[in-house]
Amino acid sequence: MKVTRKQLDSAVVEEILSPEQAERLLDFLKEQPASGPRFDFTHVLYYMGGLIAIGAMTLFMNLGWESFGGWGIFFISVAYAGAALQLAGTFHKKGYAVPAGICAAFVVALAPLAIYGLQQGMGWWPDDSTYRQYHRYIKWHWLYLELGTLAVGAVIAFIYRYPFLQMPIAVTLWYMSMDIAAMLAGGRPDFELRALVSIYFGLAMALFAFWVDIRSAKSGDYAFWLYLFGVMAFWGGLTSQHSDSELGKFIYFTVNLLLIGIGVVVVRRIFVIFGALGCSIYLGHLANEVFENSWLFPFALTAIGLAIIYLGLLWQRNEERITRKVRSFLPPAFRELLAERRA
């Protein structure tokens, strides 16, 4: 929780703290290193620098690196990882959690490049594809890189338990779902298979994120990146499904409404954002195709919008009572999670 000067002044007015105690507490807090993510210029620089470094060794890797050969790529990757681990350890000891987590995540992001170099050096690489294509194309043999990355991620996450470490792990799991689909299809999977795999994988990752959320509610937000890529995969696969049935499209709409409801319950905006996008897509379908020539549709939609606003007013008036009643039926661990998130 961020403590501001205004809050301390209010504590002085309420005679909870003396003016001298408030000043000393404020000075003490200013001297503490930032331990969690915040939206300020320092943290923007942290994440911008970290993402540029990670991007340089992943998304923006060019073909020039192929000139180093497999063993060259492997040893350069190991050297980079060693330096990043050293930095992570230094930041960790000094209490700078955000840069420590970014450096640790950089080590995990280097793992597929190192494994690629090792396979090239040993002559185990199965075709003429290059590492640059790892982030662009779906191939079954990327699975070796992904499994190795997950192993490295598990070890690093055990040593440095920072939430940002879940980002490269979540991305790797997402990639793996696509490559498993390619392996099952015996080559490059068709669009329908990829969408179907994406739905089931996204659902599994979201459920796993929920489990992580409950387990880590009091220690940090370790589930954010898992939720993000899980919902993206699920919603993307669901939206990619094609149906000529209006019933199917209405079911799509209801699933997106359910996503919004889940987002409210577990206090996760990512569900609400994608659920709202899905609802907008369905309403756009109604406006452009089903009721294309109906002059009543805009009026009906306006009435629905106003009704939803009224439901919001009713909810605001009765939120505490309804929330208390609903929570009484939930497992204790889930109640603690909701209390922690809402706090």
Question: Your description of this structure?
Answer:
The chain is mainly alpha-helical. It has 2 domains: 24-165, no CATH class; 190-343, no CATH class. Helices cover 74% and strands 0% of the residues. It is flat, with a radius of gyration of 25 Å. The termini are close together. 29% of the residues are buried. The mean pLDDT is 81.
Helix content: over 70%
**Which regions have little confidence, pLDDT < 50, spanning 5+ residues?**
none
State the distance separating the first and last CA atoms.
9 Å
Give the SSE order as H and E letters: HHHHHHHHHHHHH
Number of helices: 13
Largest sheet: none
Beta-strand content bin: under 5%
Structural class given helices, strands, pairing? mainly alpha
**Overall radius of gyration:** 25 Å
Average pLDDT for all residues = 81
Domain count: 2
What is the number of strand segments? 0
Global morphology = flat
Keywords, separated by commas or semicolons:
343 residues; 2 domains; single chain; 0% strand; mainly alpha; 13 helices
Break the fold down into its secondary structure elements and pairings.
Layout: H1 5-13, H2 19-31, H3 41-56, H4 69-94, H5 97-122, H6 143-159, H7 166-185, H8 191-215, H9 224-240, H10 246-266, H11 269-290, H12 297-327, H13 332-342
